[in-house]
Write a structure and sequence with these properties.
163 residues, alpha+beta, 2 domains, four-stranded antiparallel β-sheet
Length: 163
């Protein structure tokens, strides 16, 4: 099927529209194939994986850059995929604050929603606010993600703290 529809993402999407499992069977274990089909079309990927963070993780597991390409510039898209699933986000960005920033750049409110979500999922969270900076530490067992966001005017900077 991939050979028949290669380079024709629209054809593949017509065949699998709204059926993420069908697309996963066709591209199972081959994130690059999925990226070729949906690259540059975040809405297409969202239709396939909407509400299924595990499906997205199978496609992009350990590759935050791939996830970023799919949802680039659309913080709401990333929130729809991960809202309510803090563990999925931790798996994707575990220990890599820079990757987390790429996914949520410029959206402090999105980060705070993630932290609220972590609280609902019984994850350990520490939020410290000092003047214009916001420090967030998300921890579960051995997984520790420490993020410091410093906001000055409209720019954001980030520093990863040692575990």
């Amino acid at each position: 099927m991939l050979r028949l529809c290669y380079d024709d993402a629209k054809a593949m999407l017509r065949l699998c529209y709204d059926d993420a499992q069908a697309m996963l069977r066709l591209c199972n274990g081959d994130a690059q194939a999925m990226l070729r089909l949906c690259y540059g079309d975040a809405q297409a990927m969202l239709r396939l994986c909407y509400g299924d963070a595990q499906a997205m993780l199978r496609l992009c597991n350990g590759d935050a850059h791939s996830m970023h390409r799919l949802c680039y510039g659309d913080s709401q898209a990333i929130l729809r995929l991960y809202y309510g699933d803090a563990q999925a986000m931790l798996i994707l960005c575990n220990g890599d604050a820079h990757s987390m920033l790429r996914l949520r750049y410029g959206d402090v409110q999105a980060m705070l929603r993630l932290c609220s979500c972590c609280a609902m999922n019984s994850l350990s969270i520490t939020i410290a606010q000092h003047e214009n900076s916001l420090s967030i530490i998300i921890a579960q067992q051995e997984h520790i993600l420490s993020i410091t966001i410093a906001q000055h005017k409209q720019s954001l900077s980030i520093a990863r703290a040692s575990p």
